[in-house]
Amino acid sequence: MCLEKRLEPDIEKHQTKEQAGFRPGFSTIDHIHTIEQIVEKHQEFKSPLYLAYVDYAKAFDSITHESIWQALKHQNIPDIYINIIKNIYIKSTSRVKLDRLGPKINIRRGVKQGDPLSPKLFIAVLQNIMKDLKWEGKGINIDGKYLSNLRFADDIVLFSTSSKQLEEMLTDLSDSSNTIGLQLNTSKTKVTTNSKQTLL
Protein backbone atom coordinates (compact mmCIF):
# COMPACT_ATOMS: atom_id res chain seq x y z
CA MET A 1 0.00 0.00 0.00
CA CYS A 2 1.43 3.41 -0.95
CA LEU A 3 2.25 6.06 1.65
CA GLU A 4 -0.65 8.28 0.58
CA LYS A 5 -3.20 5.53 1.30
CA ARG A 6 -1.68 4.83 4.70
CA LEU A 7 -1.74 8.48 5.78
CA GLU A 8 -5.01 9.60 4.21
CA PRO A 9 -7.37 8.27 6.95
CA ASP A 10 -5.50 10.07 9.75
CA ILE A 11 -5.13 13.32 7.79
CA GLU A 12 -8.78 13.14 6.75
CA LYS A 13 -9.88 12.60 10.35
CA HIS A 14 -8.51 16.01 11.35
CA GLN A 15 -10.01 17.95 8.45
CA THR A 16 -13.17 20.00 8.95
CA LYS A 17 -16.19 20.54 6.72
CA GLU A 18 -14.75 23.89 5.61
CA GLN A 19 -12.07 22.19 3.46
CA ALA A 20 -13.26 20.63 0.19
CA GLY A 21 -9.98 20.40 -1.70
CA PHE A 22 -8.36 16.99 -2.28
CA ARG A 23 -10.80 15.16 -0.02
CA PRO A 24 -12.79 12.00 -0.77
CA GLY A 25 -16.52 12.63 -0.72
CA PHE A 26 -16.17 16.40 -0.90
CA SER A 27 -16.82 18.60 -3.92
CA THR A 28 -15.65 22.16 -4.48
CA ILE A 29 -18.82 22.61 -6.54
CA ASP A 30 -20.85 22.17 -3.35
CA HIS A 31 -18.83 24.94 -1.72
CA ILE A 32 -19.48 27.21 -4.71
CA HIS A 33 -23.23 26.56 -4.41
CA THR A 34 -23.06 27.31 -0.68
CA ILE A 35 -21.40 30.66 -1.37
CA GLU A 36 -24.03 31.49 -3.99
CA GLN A 37 -26.82 30.66 -1.53
CA ILE A 38 -25.21 32.77 1.20
CA VAL A 39 -24.96 35.76 -1.14
CA GLU A 40 -28.57 35.32 -2.32
CA LYS A 41 -29.96 35.05 1.23
CA HIS A 42 -28.11 38.14 2.42
CA GLN A 43 -29.37 40.08 -0.58
CA GLU A 44 -32.92 38.85 -0.01
CA PHE A 45 -32.94 39.89 3.66
CA LYS A 46 -30.79 42.98 3.02
CA SER A 47 -28.24 41.78 5.57
CA PRO A 48 -24.65 43.07 5.35
CA LEU A 49 -22.19 40.53 3.97
CA TYR A 50 -18.45 40.82 3.42
CA LEU A 51 -16.41 38.18 1.61
CA ALA A 52 -12.65 37.95 1.17
CA TYR A 53 -11.32 35.72 -1.59
CA VAL A 54 -7.87 34.84 -0.30
CA ASP A 55 -5.09 33.82 -2.66
CA TYR A 56 -1.66 32.65 -1.53
CA ALA A 57 1.51 33.41 -3.47
CA LYS A 58 3.00 30.12 -4.73
CA ALA A 59 1.28 28.22 -1.92
CA PHE A 60 2.48 24.68 -2.65
CA ASP A 61 6.05 25.88 -3.16
CA SER A 62 6.19 27.94 0.01
CA ILE A 63 5.18 25.93 3.07
CA THR A 64 8.18 25.09 5.23
CA HIS A 65 9.17 21.49 5.68
CA GLU A 66 9.21 22.02 9.43
CA SER A 67 5.52 22.95 9.30
CA ILE A 68 4.81 19.64 7.54
CA TRP A 69 6.47 17.61 10.32
CA GLN A 70 4.62 19.60 12.99
CA ALA A 71 1.25 19.16 11.29
CA LEU A 72 1.71 15.42 10.87
CA LYS A 73 2.79 15.08 14.50
CA HIS A 74 -0.24 17.04 15.73
CA GLN A 75 -2.50 14.87 13.59
CA ASN A 76 -1.21 11.67 15.18
CA ILE A 77 0.68 10.34 12.17
CA PRO A 78 3.04 7.59 13.43
CA ASP A 79 6.69 8.64 13.69
CA ILE A 80 7.75 5.88 11.30
CA TYR A 81 5.82 7.54 8.45
CA ILE A 82 6.92 11.05 9.39
CA ASN A 83 10.54 9.88 9.28
CA ILE A 84 10.03 8.27 5.87
CA ILE A 85 8.69 11.55 4.49
CA LYS A 86 11.49 13.50 6.19
CA ASN A 87 14.12 11.29 4.57
CA ILE A 88 12.56 11.85 1.15
CA TYR A 89 12.44 15.62 1.60
CA ILE A 90 15.88 15.95 3.20
CA LYS A 91 17.37 14.59 -0.03
CA SER A 92 15.69 17.35 -2.07
CA THR A 93 18.25 19.65 -3.67
CA SER A 94 18.43 22.19 -6.46
CA ARG A 95 21.23 23.57 -8.62
CA VAL A 96 21.38 26.86 -10.50
CA LYS A 97 23.09 26.95 -13.88
CA LEU A 98 24.58 30.25 -15.05
CA ASP A 99 27.93 30.00 -16.83
CA ARG A 100 28.34 26.66 -15.15
CA LEU A 101 26.37 24.40 -12.86
CA GLY A 102 26.35 25.78 -9.32
CA PRO A 103 26.60 23.87 -6.05
CA LYS A 104 23.70 21.87 -4.67
CA ILE A 105 21.24 23.85 -2.55
CA ASN A 106 19.14 22.09 0.04
CA ILE A 107 15.41 22.74 -0.40
CA ARG A 108 13.59 23.56 2.83
CA ARG A 109 10.25 24.67 1.44
CA GLY A 110 7.42 23.34 -0.67
CA VAL A 111 5.82 19.99 -1.38
CA LYS A 112 6.98 17.81 -4.24
CA GLN A 113 5.34 18.47 -7.60
CA GLY A 114 3.48 15.52 -9.07
CA ASP A 115 3.54 13.51 -5.84
CA PRO A 116 -0.01 12.32 -4.96
CA LEU A 117 0.82 12.78 -1.28
CA SER A 118 1.64 16.49 -1.70
CA PRO A 119 -1.95 17.85 -1.67
CA LYS A 120 -2.66 15.84 1.49
CA LEU A 121 0.42 17.29 3.18
CA PHE A 122 -0.62 20.79 2.19
CA ILE A 123 -4.16 20.60 3.58
CA ALA A 124 -2.78 19.00 6.76
CA VAL A 125 -0.47 21.98 7.27
CA LEU A 126 -3.22 24.48 6.50
CA GLN A 127 -5.61 22.78 8.93
CA ASN A 128 -2.94 22.93 11.60
CA ILE A 129 -3.02 26.74 11.60
CA MET A 130 -6.75 27.15 10.92
CA LYS A 131 -7.68 25.18 14.05
CA ASP A 132 -5.79 27.65 16.25
CA LEU A 133 -7.46 30.80 14.93
CA LYS A 134 -9.66 32.40 17.59
CA TRP A 135 -12.68 32.82 15.34
CA GLU A 136 -15.44 31.56 17.61
CA GLY A 137 -18.44 33.82 17.05
CA LYS A 138 -16.90 35.30 13.91
CA GLY A 139 -18.22 34.91 10.40
CA ILE A 140 -21.90 34.57 9.57
CA ASN A 141 -24.61 32.92 11.64
CA ILE A 142 -26.31 30.00 9.92
CA ASP A 143 -28.96 28.28 12.02
CA GLY A 144 -27.18 29.19 15.24
CA LYS A 145 -23.71 28.14 14.08
CA TYR A 146 -21.01 30.43 12.74
CA LEU A 147 -19.33 29.88 9.39
CA SER A 148 -16.11 31.86 9.05
CA ASN A 149 -14.58 30.31 5.94
CA LEU A 150 -14.74 27.78 3.14
CA ARG A 151 -11.57 26.31 1.63
CA PHE A 152 -10.75 25.05 -1.84
CA ALA A 153 -7.35 23.52 -0.98
CA ASP A 154 -5.15 26.66 -1.01
CA ASP A 155 -7.91 29.14 -1.90
CA ILE A 156 -9.97 30.44 1.02
CA VAL A 157 -13.17 32.46 1.20
CA LEU A 158 -13.77 34.36 4.45
CA PHE A 159 -17.22 35.49 5.58
CA SER A 160 -18.19 38.36 7.85
CA THR A 161 -21.01 40.79 8.54
CA SER A 162 -18.71 43.79 9.06
CA SER A 163 -15.71 45.35 7.39
CA LYS A 164 -13.84 45.68 10.68
CA GLN A 165 -14.28 42.02 11.60
CA LEU A 166 -13.22 40.86 8.14
CA GLU A 167 -10.09 43.01 8.37
CA GLU A 168 -9.27 41.40 11.72
CA MET A 169 -9.79 37.94 10.24
CA LEU A 170 -7.52 38.71 7.30
CA THR A 171 -4.82 39.92 9.69
CA ASP A 172 -5.19 36.79 11.82
CA LEU A 173 -4.96 34.55 8.77
CA SER A 174 -1.98 36.42 7.34
CA ASP A 175 -0.05 36.26 10.62
CA SER A 176 -0.73 32.55 11.10
CA SER A 177 0.08 31.79 7.47
CA ASN A 178 3.43 33.53 7.77
CA THR A 179 4.47 31.07 10.48
CA ILE A 180 4.33 28.21 7.96
CA GLY A 181 5.88 30.12 5.07
CA LEU A 182 2.71 31.25 3.30
CA GLN A 183 2.19 34.82 2.10
CA LEU A 184 -1.14 36.31 1.06
CA ASN A 185 -1.05 37.49 -2.55
CA THR A 186 -2.41 40.98 -1.98
CA SER A 187 -2.85 41.68 -5.69
CA LYS A 188 -5.16 38.66 -6.10
CA THR A 189 -6.90 38.67 -2.71
CA LYS A 190 -10.22 40.44 -3.24
CA VAL A 191 -12.95 41.73 -0.93
CA THR A 192 -16.57 42.10 -2.00
CA THR A 193 -19.67 43.28 -0.13
CA ASN A 194 -23.34 44.04 -0.57
CA SER A 195 -23.03 46.84 1.98
CA LYS A 196 -22.71 50.54 1.24
CA GLN A 197 -19.93 50.81 3.79
CA THR A 198 -16.41 51.43 2.53
CA LEU A 199 -14.45 48.29 1.66
CA LEU A 200 -11.11 47.49 3.30
UniProtKB/TrEMBL annotation:
It comes from the Eukaryota. Keywords: Endonuclease, Hydrolase, Nuclease. GO terms for biological process: DNA biosynthetic process. Pfam families: RVT_1. One of its GO terms (molecular function) is endonuclease activity. SUPFAM superfamilies: DNA/RNA polymerases. Residues 1-200 form the Reverse transcriptase domain. PROSITE patterns: RT_POL. This is Retrovirus-related Pol polyprotein from type-2 retrotransposable element R2DM Endonuclease. It comes from Eumeta variegata (Bagworm moth). The gene is pol.
